[in-house]
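Internal tracking record. Fields below are filled automatically when a chain is submitted to the structure queue. Please do not edit lines marked as system-generated. If the sequence contains nonstandard residues, flag them in the REMARKS field before resubmitting.
Queue: standard
Priority: normal
Entity type: single polypeptide chain
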Amino acid sequence: MIKLILYLNLLIIFISAANVYSQDFEEDENETSETILQREQFINERRAGGPGKVLPKLAHEKAVLQKMKIPEDKNTNSITSTTSWVSVNPEGMWYEVTDDNYISGRTNGIAFHPSNPNIIYIAAAQGGVWKTIDGGISWTALTDNLGSISSGDIAIDPSNPNVLYYGTGELNYSGDSQYGDGVYKSTDAGLSWNKIVSASLVGAYIGKIVVDPVNSNNVYIAGREGIFKTTNGGVNFTNVLFINSSALVMSPVNPSVLYCANGSNQTTIYKTTNGGLNWNLSYSNSSGRRTQIAISPDNENYIYASIAASSGALLGVYRTTNGGDNWTLQSSSPNYMASQGWYDNAVTVIPGNPNGVIVGGLDVYSSTNGGVTLVKKSAWATSDPLQFSHADIHYLTYNGNVLYCCSDGGVYRSTNNGNSWSDLNAKISTLQFQSADYDPTDVQKLYGGCQDNNKQTSTNSGLVWIQRTTGDGGYTVVDPVNTNYIYGQYVNGSIQRSQNFGVSFTNITPSGSSGGLFYNPYEMAPGDHNTVVFGRANVYKTTSVQTASTSQGWTQIAATGTIGGNISAIGISFTNINKIYIGTSGGKLLVTTDNGANWSSQTGFGYVTDLVVDFANDDICYASLGGATPDKHVYKTTNGGVNWFSISGNLPDIGHNSIALRQTSPRMIFVGTDLGVFKSTNEGANWVSFNSGFPNVEVYDMKYKEGPQILLAATHGRGCFTFDVGSTVGISGSNNIPGKFHLSQNYPNPFNPVTRIKYELESPGFVTLKVYNALGSEVANLVDKRQSAGKYEISFDGKSLPSGVYFYRISSGEFSEVKSMMLIK
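SYSTEM-GENERATED OUTPUT FOLLOWS
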């Protein structure tokens, strides 16, 4: 891995750059190697529970088992048990820079049906396995409910394309590379999965899976814990080589010949000629670090290695033409890795030309003379859609003569060796959100901050998201009164304001603020939309956020000496803007009741990830914590922070990243974790799994607003989801006559093939209820008649329709409402 001294030097450089951040926000906040390193530190600390802490080995796998024992929210006494979550990010995001592309989340692996080029599988960083049967026009998620949907690789049995192997745990050596739960196998083309080996044996990070095309009982897995082999289709696995590897290739002629390369420490390449029984060192270079390799499909003796130096820059493209006996440096420039080859590094060989090689880091480069000359073939910072392929490339491969590129922006395809590109991301929902929020006066308006895709907006309940800026996006807040004001964030100590519904932003970071985390929290007072508190290593406050700038409108209310660490969470009283709760990454909880004149503090907690204050009684506050320490996940105070006590109950021992509170009756607490969402209706004495229709993914942020009664969850790998709590509670009326018009979320959702739709009519009238496909074409007319006021339920059978997202709309007089649902077959 990167040496500590290098990291510190990069950190100093970046902080210096941050101190001269321009007041006028520009749309060029692009990810750098420095930000990747700092993002890694930020997520590692939060996930482990604080600075210097390490998440216990196999903590994720143990937490998955704990989650399985937690009851689901299906009790008949639960008012939320009859509905489910709905994706408000069901598709890819429109890329405004080129105005002709879609982008999705980081993708690490791809597998092709051996005889049908339209059937493709991909493995997304925290989005699981997706399948297309039409060449990428539409996609279906296959693994949302597995123990982990963090993806290392997906492989297909070339002898039986119904057999798939899915390696969980992303081996990209980045902090947000989530842990895996072992290896899964499907024998029905992805419809169902069985775990064939646990992470306790093969490790929590998988880099590559290779299936023997001659004897498909032989399967090889490369990961952080070594090279593993099964000779019986996954019944048993044996570690055949102890190496940290994300690179494994098999000879196209002799499946007993394989090569693997290390992913960290010095470069080592090993070769076996007897199916892994023995391995011999083929190449070693003490100056190299992560190494990716590729073998020519036309000449098994031609193997290429893309090697990163310890700095992360390109050490060189190396080649052997004699099966690994000798390796030759072909070129060491241009530096297509920048300084992050430890994170994004890929290579493949052009079919039909053993001297043709494609490499990738930030962009894609091609050579037709064995790697001696490299020509740039893509550009992440371009407005030309034909040249655009998203930055940070993790895997390159061919299917026939078609080149595929898997990157931080999804999947891209070229039919001419990279001379032009198209994307396959329009129907893939794998965006890695850091935060999101919605307009309480118009819940169709959504806003978010994403890794590598900065800020984005939607005006139609997430059917279309538009990327507004590039780079890494952080916390997101919508002004609930003047909803054209949106607040967003770029990394390393910033807060930015939009006055035009998130289209453009201006930096308003207080100039005196210093230190802090990769993402620094800020909070708008729930009772005063003019007040915002912003925290780094010190705390600033403004009561005029709509006009504040970097140089005016802010007041420091806590110095670094008072905080004694980095602020990671903020909570503000609804009735008293001078009463503020603060949490730090080092496990301290502080509170002031007099606008910072005095602070009291309590220590000994884990990383405080989020805070929420009770509206009616601001002595009541809840805190969520990172880390895997038992019974230290959610805390509560009832005396204004003098004492805090755990209400963790039966929650799994894994990171808890966010917390939200429904304060009207019936009262509910929601926590977003590394394993989905959990709910309590008895102040944390017991928790239920609140994940109907929700993937098993990290939840980084949640927002709940009492007016619309919508719970919004921002996930780090499967986009955003909403839960309409108002569809199950708070509907008034007498004599069974509803107090308002209302369309409920269908249940179950996703469904196959039948689902139920409930709706309520406040007054009689002519009612239509129709179903539309994603193109807007009507596919079903469920109701088309006059109905009396009352409550109704109708079934919808989608057996004649293909899998995908559908929309159902009800109209009665001036009332009209639309919701989405997902059919999965």
